[in-house]
Amino acid sequence: MCWRWLLSCKILRKISLGMRFYGGWLLCLSLLLVIFHIFSVVEFHPNSVIEGGPNKRNKKSDHLLLGPAAGQGLPNRLQCQGPGSKALNKTHLLTSPSASNVGDRIVFVTMFTIYNTSLDSHADSKSSNLVTVGNVSYTKTERSMAILNVFINFIQVTMPRSSVIILTDPESDLLLQRNKVTLYPIQGEYSREKLMLQRIRSYITFLNTRLKELAQNPRHTSHYIFTDSDIAVVDDLEHIFQKFPKFHMALTFRNNKEQPLNSGFIAVRGTPKSILRAKIFLQEVLEVYTSKYMSASRMLGDQLALAWVIKSDPNFDLRRFSKARAFLAEIGGASVLFLPCATYNWTPPEGAGQFRGMPLDVKVVHFKGSRKRLMLESWNFFSSASDISDMLCLILMSGRTKYDF
Questions:
Q1: Is there a contact between 240 and 267 (Cβ–Cβ < 8 Å)?
Q2: Local structure of 401: helix, strand or coil
Q3: Is residue 22 domain-shared with residue 133, that is, in the same domain?
Q4: What is the pTM of this model?
Q5: Do strands 334-340 and 249-253 pair parallel, antiparallel, or not at all (unpaired)?
Q6: Pair (13, 146) in one structural domain
Q7: How far is the C-alpha of 197 from the C-alpha of 300, rounded, in Å?
Q8: Does some domain include residue 388?
Q9: Is the pLDDT of residue 2 over 50?
Q10: How many CB atoms lie within 10 A of CB 25?
Q11: Which of 140, 289, 358, 400 has its CB 3.0 to 4.6 Å from that of 305, i.e. a possible disulfide?
C-alpha cells in the first residue's frame, strides 16, 4: 500500500500545481482519500465479483425445495403440514366407474412430436445439457419422452378404463409402446413456430375421421378429452359427461381479461352431433387464428383465437368468467360447457404469495412452461407414497424458481 500512496501523492502534486485556483492542496487531499478508498476495497475484496456474480446467483437447483403451502387456513383449500409433504385434509377418493355407463369410454387425445436429433445427438448428450431428476439424468429428447410417459401414467392410475391417442408427425422419431396407447400420424406442418396451429388442424382432422367411423358403426361411442401432454389427471373425469348431459364440447376458463380460455383442455361428447359441432367450432377458431393471430403462432395464438370466437358472440356475458363455477352457453350453434380452470386446469403457483392455494376438488394439474421438472418429481413422489393428496401438497409447496429446468 505504501508505494501506491507515494505514487498517488506524486500524481496529485503535479495535478495540484495546475489547479491552484480550485483550492490547491485541499482538492489534492480530497482526491487522495477517494483513491485510497478504492484501493482498500480492491485489496480486501479481490474475489467479490466472482463470488457474487450472476453465475452463482442464477444457478438453478437440481432438486425441489419446499416452502410454505399457499392457502393455509382458507376454506375449501388443501391444507399441508411441513416439513415434508403431508396433507391434513384429503382431496380425492378414487371410485370405480358406474356400471350403467360401462359402454362409454373416455379417450384422451394429445399431440406430441419429437424432432430428429441425429445431427445434434452428440451435443444433446453432453453433461452440461443433461437434467437430473431424482436419480435419472435426461437429455432434452429423453426429458420430453419422460414427460409424455408420466402423462400416460397418471391417466392409467386415475382412469384405468381410459385409453390415449397421440397425434403425431409421420416423420417423427417417436417410438412408444404402452398398453392402451395408440399413435395416430397426421400429415401437417410441425415446426416449432407453427406447432399450436398444427394442433388445431390435427384436432379437426381427428374429429372428421371419427365422424366417418361413427357413420359406419354408430354404436361405438367414446367421449374425447383433448389435452396438452404436460398435465396430470389426478381424479376421474367421467363425471363431466354424466353431470352435464347436454353439452357438445367443453372449454376451461379463468378470470383473465385478455386470455380467459386455456386450450390445454377441450372435452367433446362422443355423439355424431357433438363431434360435428365441435369440428365446426374449431374450424372457426382456426380461421380466426390464421387471419388475426399468426404473429402469435408459436404460442398463445390459439387461446387468443378461442377468446375472440367466444367474445364475438353477442349473447355471451363475459362477466360469467369472474366466478369459478361451471356453466353452459350456446356459441355459434354449439352447446359449450365452460369449466373453471381452478378445478379442471389448475396450474401451480409462480411465486410465494401469488396464489390462494389449491382447491380441494382439483381434477387436473397443468405443468405449463418451465414446470416440467415438477411434473416428473411429482410422479416420482407418488410412485413411492401412493397418495394423491400428499403428492398435491408437494406440488403446492414448490415455488417456480426452485424447479425450473
A1: yes
A2: helix
A3: no
A4: 0.81
A5: parallel
A6: no
A7: 10
A8: yes
A9: no
A10: 13
A11: 289
3-state secondary structure of 395: helix
Maximum CA extent, the chain: 104
Query: 191 and 141: one domain?
Result: yes
Q: Are 16 and 28 in contact (CB under 8 A)?
A: yes
* Comparison of pLDDT for 41 and 360, the residue scoring more: 360
Q: What are 89's three cell numbers?
A: 385434509
* One domain for residues 173 and 39: no
Separation CA 379–CA 365 (nearest Å): 12
What are the two backbone dihedrals, phi and then psi, of residue 224, each rounded to the nearest 5 degrees?
Answer: -120, 135
Mean pLDDT computed over 255-267: 92
Is 64 part of any domain?
Answer: no
Q: Which of 340, 268, 263 is nearest to 305 (CA)?
A: 263
Cite the beta strand spans of 235-281 per DSSP E.
249-253, 261-268
The answer on pLDDT for 303 being more than 80 is: yes
The string of pLDDT tens digits covering residues 196-232 is: 999 999 999 999 999 999 999 887 789 999 999 999 9
What's the rounded Cα separation, in Å, for the pair 167 and 157? 22
Only one residue has cell 436419480, namely 135
Looking at the structure, do residues 100 and 49 belong to the same domain, yes or no? no
Cell of 352: 410465494
* Residue keyed to cell 382431496: 91
* Domain of 44, in residue numbers: 2-57
Determine, yes or no, domain membership for 99.
yes
- Report yes or no: 71 and 396 within 8 Å, Cβ to Cβ: yes
Residue 48 has pLDDT above 50, yes or no: no
How much of the chain, in percent, has pLDDT values that exceed 70? Answer: 75
Model pLDDT for residues 312-340, shown as the tens digit of each residue: 999 999 999 999 999 999 998 999 999 99
Q: What is the pLDDT of residue 254?
A: 93
Residue 310 and residue 232 share a domain: yes
Q: Are residues 42 and 105 in the same domain?
A: no
How many domains would you assign to the chain? 2
Residue 63 inside a domain? The answer is: no
| Distance of alpha carbon 216 from alpha carbon 202, whole angstroms | 22
CATH number at residue 266: 3.90.550.10
Is 323 found in the same domain as 225? yes
SS3 call for 383: helix
Q: What mean pLDDT value characterizes the chain?
A: 81
Residue 68 has pLDDT above 50, yes or no: yes
Distance in angstroms (rounded) separating the CA atoms of residues 386 and 19: 81
